[in-house]
From TrEMBL:
It is a multi-pass membrane protein. Residues 21-439 form the Major facilitator superfamily (MFS) profile domain. This is MFS transporter. GO terms for cellular component: plasma membrane. The chain crosses the membrane at residues 61-83, 95-116, 128-149, 169-185, 197-216, 246-270, 282-301, 313-332, 338-363, 375-398, 410-432.
Length: 444
């Protein structure tokens, strides 16, 4: 009996696969972050009077930021669920599922009636839909990082991770643009229906993202692990048993990367428009320019990090962020648009240099069989502890200080110090150094 020849499944070349994976990770993550950012923007501008109309303005903002935090509480759960599925069965299908869940939740927020229509059910349903958003993002970010980092040469993992980080400013640009257009409406129309338009637009973006992700292949590194039957039975148990120190360090190393985005785009937007009286349209335009600065600077920062060493570059960037914390508030409190832009622009350049290389830095910390779980759990735990609480705590410090920004600046600097400690600890645990990065480049 003739033996049938078994041919290996055809795969695209590593270079082409890596390029396609990075583009797909960037586009999909852009959609996810667009959905996430429009919630933060709406929480700062609209959710108070729409969903909490029976309290004063400051309390309404606190309540809006509390629903904002609900998404972060759900993110570690999403990280554990999708991290397990991604480590066991593959990255591609989990990323399709997270994008679909996020899209449905965001669209439903756009059609959710306000307090005046359905009473207390409105903020309850808003909180549940926000939690569903968080559940989806909990699995999205880690999977997108691995899709980009595992699909190319190991020496370019940090650069691959940067493509995922580009999704944050790109999503922010889209979200801020959508709300900047809606902000042209009179206040009554904006609160009645204008704020809903960016949420409904998400449906189109999700369809585009799904078409792209359904065409992807699994990263070569994971495909080889799965083919060799080296996947572990319960990745989360394996992770916590053998790599818990790296998880703890990675939680703190992610601090400013998560906190800064919401400090600027959510708290600062609310502070400037409510406390300082800056025009809503002006502030949205400033944040839009800030997101463009981030988008342009991150690839440049990544190339510098590849030359001087990722850990060193992250520490430099974090130190610059701490130095600029007080000048940021001094410039913002002038109320002058160009000075506000100067303060936010300088802070963006400092903080987002670190953020650009964070994804690749975390991906290096865990072995491939538990990498999805490790990256997702650590980053999403940080999002719960720091990301979701940042605008809430910043507003609380502002209220306790009688409207003075001193306590908020101190809180921001403390967050940076914690992040520096996490970066140094993770680098020491994993041995991730400039010398190691040079070895990988020379070996290829």
């Amino acid at each position: 009996m003739a033996q049938t020849e078994t041919r290996p499944s055809a795969r695209t070349s590593p270079e082409r696969q890596g390029r396609t994976a990075r583009i797909a990770a960037f586009l999909g993550t852009t959609v996810e972050w667009y959905d996430f950012y429009i919630y933060g923007t709406a929480a700062a501008l609209a959710f108070g009077p729409v969903f909490f109309p029976n309290v004063d303005a400051s309390t309404a903002i606190l309540a809006s930021f509390a629903t904002f935090w609900a998404g972060f509480l759900a993110r570690p759960i999403g990280g554990m669920v999708f991290g397990h599925l991604g480590d066991k069965f593959g990255r591609k299908n989990t990323l399709v599922a997270t994008l679909l869940i996020m899209g449905v939740a965001t669209f439903c927020i756009g059609i959710l009636p306000g307090y005046a229509t359905i009473g207390v059910a409105a903020p309850v349903l808003l909180t549940l839909l926000r939690a569903l958003q968080g559940f989806a993002v909990g699995g999205e970010w880690g999977g997108a990082v691995l899709l980009a980092a595992e699909s190319g040469p190991k020496s370019k993992a940090v650069r691959g991770g940067m493509f995922v980080q580009q999704g944050s400013p790109a999503g922010n640009i889209l979200a801020t643009t959508a709300f900047a257009l809606a902000a042209f409406l009179p206040d009554e129309a904006f609160l009645a229906w204008g704020w809903r338009m960016p949420f409904l637009l998400s449906a189109l973006l999700v369809v585009i993202g799904l078409v792209i992700r359904l065409r992807l292949e699994e990263p070569e590194e994971f495909a080889q692990t799965k083919a060799a039957a080296e996947t572990v039975k319960v990745p989360l148990f394996e992770l916590l048993k053998h790599h818990w120190k790296a998880v703890v360090a990675a939680v703190f190393a992610s601090g400013l990367g998560i906190g800064m985005a919401y400090f600027v785009s959510t708290f600062m937007l609310s502070y400037a428009t409510t406390t300082l009286g800056v025009d809503r349209q002006v502030m949205l335009n400033i944040l839009l320019v800030g997101a463009v600065i981030q988008f342009v600077w991150q690839p440049i920062g990544t190339r510098i990090a590849e030359r001087v060493g990722t850990t060193k570059f992250m520490i430099w960037s974090l130190a610059a962020s701490a130095v600029l914390a007080v000048p940021l508030f001094l410039l913002v409190t002038t109320g002058e648009p160009w000075l506000i832009l100067l303060g936010i622009g300088m802070s963006m350049i400092a903080g987002t240099g670190y953020y650009a290389v964070l994804a690749g830095f975390l991906a290096q910390a865990f072995p491939v069989e538990v990498r999805y779980s490790g990256v997702s759990l650590s980053y999403q735990l940080c999002s719960t502890l720091i990301g979701g609480t940042t605008p809430l705590l910043a507003q609380l410090f502002l209220n306790l200080g009688g409207g003075h920004w001193g306590g908020v600046a101190g809180f921001f600097i403390a967050l940076i110090v914690i992040t520096v400690a996490g970066v140094l600890a993770l680098a020491a645990i994993t041995g991730f150094s400039a010398a190691r990065e040079r070895e990988l480049r020379n070996a290829e």
